């Protein structure tokens, strides 16, 4: 019973007889017929060609990729090829069939001879299972039917969902740890000695924040800000940062085990991509010669130089954002509007973060084209090599796009802006912004929060709405049925394929990068959850909420809004694993730097053990960080201001001779004090210690958890043994 099963559908516009496009189309379809393909034509507003491959192609495929020991069996032992394999083989042959004009399907699509080529979503048992158990919102917290996904979309897509599910599951632990950290911070919300001192400092006069018409201000104005800072920036954060470094390693190690189990159960553990590609080429054309490996140092050098230039551009954009914030701050502070001038710093940071988000959106598009261009220069040998080199490039560009501004806020903000009477200026005019007196970590926290929340909410809404709306629009374009009147009764006998093909044609098209985009989004999110997590302990929680929604949104998109993806075989997540390992290492470095440089953790510890009242040994009952704030502010004499600075010397009716600013400098010549160097040395020592400890623990975890479970190893061992014994 061979009811009509079609592997692929080609869609083309109705061209005039004898036109160039019509001739090209006929040539292509003739080539397919020569290979034994069955072709069925249905005419509607477009021409639809159903394509079915002859059975002998799949027999060839099976016998080429069979284990050598099973070759002796008689030829009746061919089982049915799974649908995913059928589609994959047919897709390969369609893409690589050459017409007499030496054109392939892709060239014909560029010339608008064909408009689309896609496999069909069919009404089968498996689609119903997937729609019921996976592609709907009601099953948010149920386990995914990975086996069914694999049977319908192929191994590559199934591995993506298995990986995403595994990552989401392990995020629960990271999210709980993050919540615990914030909770620990909240318990000391009002009791922290440092923030108490800031709140009580109502006669500590601080130097003005801008040059023109800014008045002096009192330290205690920033009381709430200081409390919030100490909620994020306390001892618990250090423990949390180490925990996250270990978590990242354990996540990857456990995933490797999970993957080995899955790959063995699907029988792709020893599968070889290169062999598969060669087999397909030979089935398509028995005279095919493989393309040899090539490597050109000249090409690599050019690609490297261009990539570095692109990274420079991305860093330049981060600088532009810095300049924007400095200028905005100056303008807002002088603004007539009270709201603006009062919260100038917060507004400058917030608008800066929104601008940063906009640059991320624009630069993503640019990065995409640059990375594709660089890949073309490299001339990769196979499709998978092309994909790998593209992945690495786009990830590096995206990383700099997303993180350069965060890196500036974390490590440079407030460290390169000079001191009163000698400020570093942009174009000799605008002062660089400073950190808040209670520390720089809050600036980083705001920036991370704004970007993560915006990125996840807006991109998720767009990601779902755009396909949904375009699907609705494509459905609306249906033509009115004019011909039924003329034909009378005969219209009833409409071809059963026609409805199905039309329905599939109305769905949104998929391309090679559909799955790639999903990976990229999650990997960038993973970098946000691990690299600066010390400054934003809630990141894993946001990521967790996002992923639970993301899994089902991707499922709904794939099943209901998009044409069927061409199933591809894979035995792991490919180059993404190396990318994730690189992020894990960066996470150790990033968090070490955040605690050593951005946070106030080190200066407070140095003060406690070297300068505080406790060191004199006679005060037992008091907090050791008492007096820290006074100690961390330097004194500036008003008479030393730069000549063009307009400052109102009076404050609350008192003539002011000196003001305080955040730095360790001497009061007479403004050079660094000994304490500055003490803190500096402590920061370096902590950084080295933290990174070595964290990296050792990472290596230990990687060694302790074997990549491949014993069960899988034993299974492979038994198989090898049995094969050899049978051979004997």
From TrEMBL:
It holds the Pfam family Anoctamin. The chain crosses the membrane at residues 157-186, 236-255, 301-327, 347-374, 394-413, 523-552, 573-597, 680-705. InterPro entries: Anoct_dimer, Anoctamin, Anoctamin_TM. Its main location: membrane. Residues 149-717 form the Anoctamin transmembrane domain. It is found in: Cell membrane; Membrane. GO terms for cellular component: plasma membrane. It is a multi-pass membrane protein. Belongs to the anoctamin family. This is Anoctamin. The lineage of its organism: Eukaryota, Metazoa, Chordata, Craniata, Vertebrata.
């Amino acid at each position: 019973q061979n009811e009509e099963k079609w592997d692929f559908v080609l869609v083309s516009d109705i061209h005039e007889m004898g036109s160039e496009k019509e001739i090209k189309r006929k040539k292509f379809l003739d080539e397919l017929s020569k290979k034994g393909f069955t072709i069925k034509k249905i005419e509607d507003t477009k021409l639809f060609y159903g394509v079915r491959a002859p059975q002998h192609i799949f027999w060839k495929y099976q016998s080429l990729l069979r284990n050598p020991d099973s070759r002796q069996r008689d030829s009746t032992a061919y089982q049915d090829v799974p649908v995913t394999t059928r589609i994959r083989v047919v897709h390969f042959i369609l893409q690589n069939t050459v017409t007499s004009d030496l054109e392939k399907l892709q060239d014909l699509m560029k010339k608008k001879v064909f408009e689309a080529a896609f496999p069909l979503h069919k009404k089968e048992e498996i689609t119903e299972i997937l729609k019921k158990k996976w592609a709907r919102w009601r099953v948010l917290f149920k386990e995914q039917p990975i086996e069914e996904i694999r049977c319908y979309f192929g191994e590559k897509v199934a591995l993506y969902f298995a990986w995403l599910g595994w990552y989401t599951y392990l995020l629960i632990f990271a999210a709980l740890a993050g919540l615990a950290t914030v909770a620990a911070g909240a318990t000391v919300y009002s009791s922290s000695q440092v923030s108490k001192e800031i709140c009580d400092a109502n006669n500590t006069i601080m130097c003005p924040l801008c040059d023109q018409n800014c008045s002096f201000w009192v330290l205690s104005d920033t009381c709430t800000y200081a409390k919030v800072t100490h909620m994020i920036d306390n001892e618990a954060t250090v423990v949390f940062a180490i925990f996250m470094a270990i978590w990242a390693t354990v996540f990857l190690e456990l995933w490797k085990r999970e993957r080995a189990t899955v790959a063995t159960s699907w029988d792709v553990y020893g599968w070889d991509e290169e062999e598969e590609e060669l087999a397909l080429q030979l089935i398509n054309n028995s005279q095919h010669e493989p393309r040899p490996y090539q490597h050109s140092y000249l090409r690599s050098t050019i690609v490297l130089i261009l990539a570095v230039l692109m990274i420079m551009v991305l860093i330049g954009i981060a600088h532009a954002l810095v300049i924007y914030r400095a200028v905005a701050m100056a303008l807002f502070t002088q603004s007539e509007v009270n709201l603006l001038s009062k919260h100038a710093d917060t507004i400058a940071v917030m608008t800066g973060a929104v601008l940063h988000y906009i640059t991320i959106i624009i630069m993503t598009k640019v990065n995409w084209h640059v990375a594709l261009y660089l890949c073309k220069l490299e001339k990769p040998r196979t499709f998978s090599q092309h994909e790998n080199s593209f992945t690495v490039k786009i990830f590096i560009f995206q990383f700099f796009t997303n993180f350069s501004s965060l890196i500036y806020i974390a490590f440079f903000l407030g460290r390169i802006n000079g001191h009163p009477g000698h400020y570093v200026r942009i174009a000799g005019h605008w002062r660089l912004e400073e950190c808040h007196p209670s520390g720089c970590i809050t600036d980083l926290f705001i920036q991370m929060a704004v970007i993560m929340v915006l990125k996840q909410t807006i991109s998720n809404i767009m990601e779902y709405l755009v396909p949904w709306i375009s699907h609705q629009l494509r459905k609306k374009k249906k033509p009115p049925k004019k011909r039924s009147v003329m034909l009378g009764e005969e219209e009833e006998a409409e071809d059963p394929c026609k409805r199905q093909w039309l329905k599939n044609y109305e769905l949104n098209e998929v391309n090679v990068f559909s799955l790639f985009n999903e990976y990229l989004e999650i990997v960038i999110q993973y970098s946000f959850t691990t690299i600066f997590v010390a400054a934003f302990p809630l990141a894993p929680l946001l990521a967790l909420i996002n992923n639970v929604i993301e899994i089902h949104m991707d499922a709904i998109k794939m099943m209901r809004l998009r044409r069927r993806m061409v199933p591809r075989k894979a035995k792991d997540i490919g180059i993404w694993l190396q990318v994730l390992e690189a992020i894990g290492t960066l996470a150790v470095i990033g968090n070490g730097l955040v605690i050593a440089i951005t946070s106030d953790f080190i200066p407070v510890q140095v003060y406690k053990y070297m300068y505080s009242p406790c060191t004199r040994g006679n005060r037992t009952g008091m907090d050791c960080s008492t007096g820290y704030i006074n100690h961390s502010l330097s004194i500036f004499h008003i008479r030393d201001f730069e000549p063009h600075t307009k400052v109102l010397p009076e404050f609350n009716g008192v003539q002011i001779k000196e003001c305080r600013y955040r730095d360790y400098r001497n009061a007479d010549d403004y050079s660094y004090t000994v304490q500055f160097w003490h803190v500096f040395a402590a920061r370096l020592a902590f950084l080295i210690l933290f990174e070595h400890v964290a990296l050792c623990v990472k290596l230990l975890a990687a060694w302790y958890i074997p990549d491949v479970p014993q069960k899988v190893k034993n299974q492979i061992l038994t198989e090898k043994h049995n094969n050899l014994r049978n051979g004997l």
